[in-house]
Amino acid sequence: MTKHIIELLDEKPFDRFSEAEMVTIRQHISNCAECEKAFEAARVSTVLLNERKASTHEPSAFFQTRVLARLREREASNEVWNFGRLWRATSALASSMVATVAALAVLTLVLPAETSVTSQETVSVNRYSAEAVILNQSQFGEELQSDSQVLTTLYGSEEEVVR
User: Fold this and answer.
1) Maximum alpha-carbon separation in the chain
2) Sign of the Cα pseudo-torsion (114, 119, 120, 126, in order)
3) Would the pTM count as exceeding 0.70?
4) Closest Cα partner for 37 from 65, 83, 15, 6?
5) Phi, psi at residue 7, to the nearest 5°?
6) Which of 18, 35, 87, 148 has CB 3.0 to 4.6 Å from 5, enough for a Cys bridge?
7) Which residue, 15, 80, 70, 76, is CA-closest to 42?
8) What local confidence, expressed as pLDDT, does residue 2 receive?
């Protein structure tokens, strides 16, 4: 026989061999030690798998009751536990946010009141606001450029772009 039993065992499960194939296999394993080991391994593993498949395991008498009771305990303890765990995880973040808000409040409310302008100091005040410039452009006259002038300044004229 030119074909080894190992190749036959790879083609289909051990318990699906016909009687003719089993006769051929037994003749071959009497001459080939390597195939005999593979045949015995396949036979033993098939027997073990069939035994395992046939056995059933029943849970203990109060298994379902114990599992459901444990789930109810876990649900009841998770409501309190989740809040505590959440607070522990976010307490550093919450306290840093409170400190940031307090620092910004101090910078906004306290520090500008402490700086005062004396009459001797000259302070240049910009009389234009963003709203005044955008909404009331006519009061500034020729100082403001049109959009096309700004774009030409930034990107060049159309003649320069074509070159």
Assistant:
1) 119
2) positive
3) no
4) 6
5) -65, -35
6) 35
7) 15
8) 45
